[in-house]
Specification:
Elements (H helix, E strand, L loop, with lengths): L3 E8 L5 H9 L7 E8 L1 H9 L5 E5 L3 H4 L10 H10 L4 E4 L4 E2 L4 H6 L7 E5 L2 E3 L4 H18 L12 E4 H6 L11 H9 L4 E4 L5 E3 L2 H6 L1 H16 L11
Parallel strand pairs: 1-2, 1-4, 2-3, 6-9, 7-10
Antiparallel strand pairs: 4-8, 5-10, 6-8
Length: about 240
């Protein structure tokens, strides 16, 4: 068994996946780690299979033509993350996305928290890959300060591109809820509270693409998440499936 398993869902990400894997190959981590890519689409699968850092590629069966952003189904990334988790051998499961670049100490920064037995989950902030001022400001508010405010009051939210979980706790809560088209990371975080302590590490950011923010707009994105939170918190309801 390895110490940590890095799991990356990648749907129609042939162009972006390479830079994600390059950043993982530069990790400064003394223990053992494996990298699993759950890939959909011929180009994406090819990039994953070709990269030396990848230990295992799990192929999804949806054709690339139907896996593009414009034709994506409402099924969220929880299904792919769960599938990768089922074959992972690590005691710690670490998740990121295929349009995200992680710093060289990313794995080590997450792993060190689990030296404390009570800790079952870790999340960190998101920063924009595109460095324009508006992106930096909006990400600072929505993907860092919001977490700093919400975690102390119990509304813990590990962002999907930058989160990890102790495997035993993940299995205890049955992993990600595959029925949720989004907020599956928030849902997992809230259910994990019953198993132990979750930590927000603001010193462990990752940089992720702003393509959705540019296409949808920050205000509309904010409203989408606000309505999603309200729907999630109302019994018998779930976030709208028309997300993005």
């Amino acid at each position: 068994m390895t110490d940590i398993s890095v799991i990356i869902p990648a749907k129609a990400e042939g162009y972006r996946l390479g830079q994600t894997l390059d950043s993982i190959s530069e990790q400064q981590f003394d223990s053992t780690a494996e990298v699993i890519v759950v890939a959909c689409g011929g180009a994406t699968i090819e990039v994953a299979r070709r990269h030396a850092v990848v230990d295992r590629v799990l192929e999804e069966t949806v054709p690339e033509s139907t896996a593009s952003e414009s034709n994506a189904t409402e099924r969220g990334p929880g299904q792919a993350r769960n599938r990768g988790s089922r074959v992972a051998t690590g005691d710690i499961l670490l998740f990121t996305d295929a349009d995200t670049v992680v710093p060289p100490t990313w794995i080590q920064d997450h792993y060190r928290h689990y030296l404390t037995p009570a800790i079952v989950g870790v999340g960190g902030p998101l920063e924009p890959l595109e460095r324009q001022l508006r992106h930096r400001l909006c990400f600072r508010v929505l993907s860092d300060w919001w977490y700093r405010v919400s975690w102390p009051v119990g509304f813990v939210q590990q962002p999907g591109p930058n989160c990890s979980v102790r495997r035993s706790a993940f299995e205890e809560v049955d992993g990600f809820d595959e029925s949720l088209p989004f907020l599956e990371d928030t849902d997992l975080s809230l259910r994990l509270r019953s198993t132990g302590v979750l930590v927000y590490d603001r010193t462990c950011p990752v940089r992720t693409s702003t393509r959705r923010q540019q296409r949808v707009g920050y205000f509309r994105l904010f409203i989408t998440y606000l309505l999603g939170y309200l729907a999630y918190l109302c019994p018998g309801r779930s976030p709208a499936e028309s997300y993005f």
